[in-house]
């Protein structure tokens, strides 16, 4: 036989063997398997049944075995079908991942730098455990203050918030950001108007009366806390601020998550401003207590409520808080993450603070050189900060620096008002950080280098031109922060520098409150001034009466002056004896005239 025939013979034998094996496997699948017969666990209950029943049972067992074999075969087919469906599930997951990637790309393309930067969101995470300054004091000072936090909580629990007509509602959605706002109901309006009247008239007693009636009127708490602070009663001032924050917290909306980056509160709404200002004053109180880690946490919370507009200019103070909290790495990372979004390189506080953080964080010579470079860049961009800092510390500058055209006091006086205020805020916040001997010597060395090296001359001139173009006006949030820090005079502690496009449920008026007919002051004024109209507002009437009185006094005084020597012509002086004779003759003539009724 040829090789090809032998090959075909072997293939035929192999095919027959495979068919035989396949038939045996099919028979095994269809044959009854007694080992898998389900056991009747209740067989002992069927002992009285007849043999015919047992035969029927045997037949039913065989049928059951046959059905079991068919079901097993059906299950195998079903498993094969399920196995074919697994790739479909994976495709679904891939589809979801693709949609998520597309949404992320869409958000990035929309220009939401604050919402799309994962690094920035991670850096601004708020730790709920870091809101108690007493806990930080315990870590710093030991167990001496172990009862402080419990005492504050007990004071808070003594007086539960009343229903004053303050609620929080969901305002609007902007893409994936949710905005919430506080709402003042009509029940809250009379207390707010009473407070406005008391604030305009500097009536602290009326504000105290509002607090007695309500217990948690927010603007009254802010005002009384400010009065207590001016009287050096710092503990009582902090208690009023914490009470206001507690009241706001109890009226949060169920959906509102204050720790979330996507949940915001708009400062343009007047009803939200009290919560902002309470948190800001709480932040300053914590800084006063030297609890900087807690203060950094609160600063993050305020910044997260509206990071785009930053109504309280937290970006101008968060850097010094981070350095005081020894969070050098966090500050450097925050600067790199938000530099392009918030233009941090155009703020003097950020330029100098990042260099200072790098200086403290540096461990190698390379990192120290990087800190020197950052400080030199800050000195080139904002050289007059050194002049302001030395004035604050009452230190004399180096002769080279004092006479330099970019570091002199003359150049500092020529800077724009906006830059002057920015540097004033930063100097007040950071002067303690810079006056350390090691830090001051480092600053002095680099300042001399920048002032002496010719290579920095062109850069200094270029930055002078930039500053003249950039800092032409005054940002409202910077002015607001300056008032809150006490660096400039404030007209209102409860609404400093109101935003120009603000919104309010009911508006504030400057008219005085009406006084009823039975008012004591109304009756007193009517008895003193008969022309007073009882239906007229007390404030308007007082202004009118005061104006009339001033006018009458002015006319009287002017008449006395004009009736004296000014009526006598020059050169008409007479002797004393002649004047007395004329006066005597005039008096005799008056006595001879008859008296008329």
UniProtKB/TrEMBL annotation:
InterPro entries in the cross-refs: TCF25/Rqc1
**GO CC entries:** RQC complex
Q: Give start-end positions of Basic and acidic residues composition bias.
A: 8-21, 44-56
Biased-composition ranges for Basic residues?
Answer: 71-84
**Pfam families, per this entry?**
Tcf25
The UniProt regions of compositional bias labelled Acidic residues, in chain numbering, are: 575-597
Q: Give the superkingdom in one word.
A: Eukaryota
Chain positions covered by the region annotation Disordered: 1-89, 145-165, 566-597
List each coiled-coil range: none
Q: What is this protein called?
A: Transcription factor 25
Species this chain originates from: Caenorhabditis auriculariae
